[in-house]
Amino acid sequence: MYFDDLSPLDVPAGTTPDAMPPNPEAVAAAVERRIRQERLQSPPAEHLHTSFDHNHEKRQEFRRLIDPGILRPNAREIALEALQTLKQLADNIIKHPNDEKYYKFKPTNSKIKHLLVEPKGTLEYAVALGFHPKVENFQPYYMFNPRHMSDLRIGSAMLEEALERELPKEERARHAREAEKAASEAAVANIKQAFLDDRRSRALQARRERETREAIEAAARRRASLPPASPPTTQAWDDASGRTLQDDADTGSPPPYV
């Protein structure tokens, strides 16, 4: 136990460390020397604290630039696209630090103008990443200064943090909007179908009533076109001859009387 840290004065003469019984005072002294040595080899605590505070403040600055800086004043869809564009610009430089074609962008580019120039707070974030306006060959650019590589990495990490938080929320909101739209469309379709069914039912009923009315009117017209019925005639029979009295009257001869 800590025998390697014991000084020769701590070990009695003629005694090996393996055979020597533990000496509490010697062990405590060895532990104290080890702690002092480790403290000398470690960086001062105040340096670590200062570095942590510096990065913390920078992260907080980027977070404030995102929200409320970008997310609140802009339409949500535009704000999220702008954050993704800023992250793409930063990641291209981080992945290709020696390729200067990724070090600049033109504010007159239609996509850049739509997502970084027109929305509020987006150019401010690009400047915080390390981009600064510059003119080359009478063309405006935003150029990245490699001295701000540390800020670029922190800003990219904060963009990723925000997107990981906001994109799922947007996805849930989109699904909710789609479900609400589908329910609204279904309700409208049901109302329309009910209206069409009612109209068809009314049309069918009206047709049946018309057909019944036309049938009644046709029957009435047929009855009106028939000739009037003649009254029935009364005939008197002669039981013996089988002739009627009308027949005898027609011949002008008196009926035979037997």
From TrEMBL:
The record ties this protein, via CDD domains, to: PUB
InterPro entries recorded for this chain? PUB-like_dom_sf, PUB_domain
**SUPFAM superfamilies (alphabetical):** PUG domain-like
Q: Where is this region: Disordered?
A: 1-25, 203-258
Q: Pfam family of this protein, just one?
A: PUB
Domain called PUB: residue spans: 77-152
Q: Where is the composition biased (Basic and acidic residues)?
A: 203-220
**The protein's name in its UniProt record:** PUB domain-containing protein
| Native species | Sparassis crispa
At the highest ranks, the source species' classification is: Eukaryota, Fungi, Dikarya, Basidiomycota, Agaricomycotina
